[in-house]
Amino acid sequence: MSDAAPPRHLLDLTALGAADLRAILNQARRRKQARAGMPKGASDPDRPCDGRVLAMIFQKNSTRTRVSFDVAMRQLGGSALVMSANDMQLGRGETVEDTARVLSCMVDAVMIRANRHEDIEGFASAADVPVLNGLSDRSHPCQILADLLTIEERLGDVRGKTIAWVGDGNNVLTSFLHAAPVLGYALRIATPPNYAPRTQDVHAARASGARVDVGADPGAAVAGADVVVTDTWVSMGDPDKDERMQAFPPFAVDAELMQRAAPHAMFMHCLPAHRGEEVSADVMDGAQSAVWDEAENRLHAQKAALMWCFRLL
Ligand code: CP
Ligand code: NVA
């Protein structure tokens, strides 16, 4: 077993106060700048996670989350191992709690991508080491850390900015809702009525002081916005693909819609993207697109998130 202090989990951005969130974003930015030009596999000179090992469990596919956490641990001086839940006894019915107890004896932290958010919570409740949510059906906090880093790189302090979300009221949007009151940005959301974000998440963000508008008009959501964000119309595990493909075409982000945003507006997408569906190819690959910086920033944000979990921030 590891630290005597309770483990610092990162299951949702609601766990972070403004000081924690700021510390993570500042640490990510500083480390990114400090290692510019270094080979990607070289460790940061201070190796703050020397000797630590992260286990990753995936119940769903991943490219960015898997690689960014693995390389993050190498750059911090530690190491990582990646497991598919299907290859583990989890896939044969061993409970998440028992798995957590066992892994807590062998590794220093666990990142999980799970079908059910409750399974990540159950894992964390039984773990003696920090647990990070690498995406669930409910939220994707590590993605939004990278997104906020990307926004601030281009536009400066996110406080007072307007972020327009067009498309599905999904897990990625939920994490934007979680951080909105903490960092003080406004969210303008346009979704088909049946795919709106959960009212409890919207109400919680508003109750904590965030300005959140929810509607079904992409043009109104995007008007004058600083940032325009979308995501796939069919997330991993969504059973209703046919209905979604019917409902979402009016919510595609194309050049005409981007013209309604502020002239300096940036386009974001957590990826993977589907050109010709939620985003047109010209927007995805155009001058306003920040998607490749956003993907790279997964690495820098994950390093800082890991340091926070290890109480190194
Ligand atoms: N954005 C994101 O989480 O990508 P992966 O599914 O490839 O990890
Ligand atoms: N909303 C998407 C994000 C993928 C990174 C999904 O859950 O599949």
Describe this structure in words.
This protein has 313 residues and is of the alpha/beta class. It has 12 helices and 9 strands. The strands form 2 sheets. The protein has a 5-stranded parallel β-sheet. Helix 2 packs across helix 12, helix 3 crosses helix 4 and helix 5 crosses helix 12. The longest helix is centred in the C-terminal third of the chain and has 19 residues. The mean pLDDT is 97. The structure holds phosphoric acid mono(formamide)ester and norvaline (NVA). Phosphoric acid mono(formamide)ester binds next to helix 2. The site of phosphoric acid mono(formamide)ester has 8 residues, from helix 2.
Please describe the topology of this protein.
Layout: H1 18-34, E1 53-58, H2 64-75, E2 79-84, H3 96-104, E3 109-113, H4 117-126, E4 131-133, H5 141-155, E5 162-166, H6 171-183, E6 186-190, H7 199-207, E7 212-215, H8 218-222, E8 227-230, H9 241-247, H10 255-258, E9 266-269, H11 281-284, H12 291-309
Parallel strand pairs: 1-2, 1-3, 3-4, 5-6, 5-8, 6-7, 8-9
This protein binds phosphoric acid mono(formamide)ester (CP) and norvaline.
